[in-house]
Amino acid sequence: YRDGAKYVDLRNVSDMYTGGYIESFELVSFFEYLENNALVRNNGWEFSEADVVEPAILENIFGSRNREVFLMCGSGTRAGYVKDALENLGYTTVYNVGGIRDYKGDHKVFGDESFSLKIQ
């Protein structure tokens, strides 16, 4: 891991428990938090500048525009979209590392497929 870098997992909370996670990646759910708060998808997964509705939320999460940011999700789609949004805000070193299923390293914590999250 790179010192000072930000590692963000954009999957849902329940995905982390059922599918596992990568150590050092912070969970910031796209569907459960970013969408409709910081970002509004006007054209599916095709990013446009108008999709950023609250840049301050993204800036609070990701910090300095000069830090390295590594994004992952289930397949890489959400990570690619958020990468475009961050680059639109002036972030210069943002990487879409793809989906958790592509991860081949030693830092994966396996989940429990039988887990069920119930929010009341």
- Uncertain ranges: none
- What is the count of DSSP helices, taking H or I runs of 4+ residues? 4
Assess the beta-strand content as a share of residues: 15-25%
Could you estimate the helical fraction of the residues in percent? 25-40%
Widest β-sheet, arrangement of strands: 3-1-4-5
What's the total count of β strands?
A: 6
Largest beta-sheet details: 4 strands, parallel
N-C termini distance: 37 Å
Mean pLDDT level: 92
Inertia-based shape: globular
SSE order, as H and E?
A: EHEEHHEHEE
What structural class do helix, strand and pairing data support? alpha/beta
Question: What radius of gyration results from the CA coordinates?
Answer: 14 Å
Oligomer: single chain
Describe this structure in words.
The chain has 120 residues and is of the alpha/beta class. Helix content is 27%, strand content 18%. The chain contains four helices and six strands. The protein has helices at 13-19, 30-34, 55-62, 77-88, and strands spanning 6-9, 21-22, 26-27, 69-73, 94-99, 108-109. The strands form two sheets. A four-stranded parallel β-sheet has the order 3-1-4-5, with helices on one face. α4 (77-88) links the parallel β4 and β5. The longest helix has 12 residues, at 77-88. The chain is globular and about 40 Å long.
